[in-house]
Specification:
about 100 residues, alpha+beta, globular, Cystine knot toxin, signal
Length: about 100
């Protein structure tokens, strides 16, 4: 039973890794994707960007010299991950309910 479960987990991980497209820079990915190095896998891969009105994470870090995003992808082009900013008890700014929205300028 344990061997079967271990095999299924391994098979699932292999299937997931085969579904990802490896990349080295943003132009290797589709327009609605980013080249992401999430620090858990050995190679960066193409991941979908957050779409309009989707919940998002403001933790996307872009390193221009490597042309890679770290931790998570940003929103699709022309959209920003925005929410209501509040300050916690330690003085850190915390974004509540962030979503990809088109900023008004």
């Amino acid at each position: 039973m344990k061997a079967t479960l271990a095999f299924l987990v391994l098979l699932g991980l292999v299937g997931i890794s085969l579904a990802w497209t490896a990349c080295t820079k943003q132009s290797d990915c589709e327009e609605d994707e980013c080249c992401l190095d999430n620090l858990f896998f050995k190679r960066p891969y193409c991941e979908k960007r957050y779409g309009a009105e989707q919940r998002c994470s403001a933790t996307a870090i872009y390193k221009e010299e490597k042309d890679l995003y770290y931790l998570t992808c940003p929103c699709v082009q022309m959209y920003e991950c925005l929410g209501k900013g509040t300050t916690d008890e330690n003085g850190n700014t915390v974004m509540k309910d962030p979503k990809c929205i088109m900023p008004t300028r």
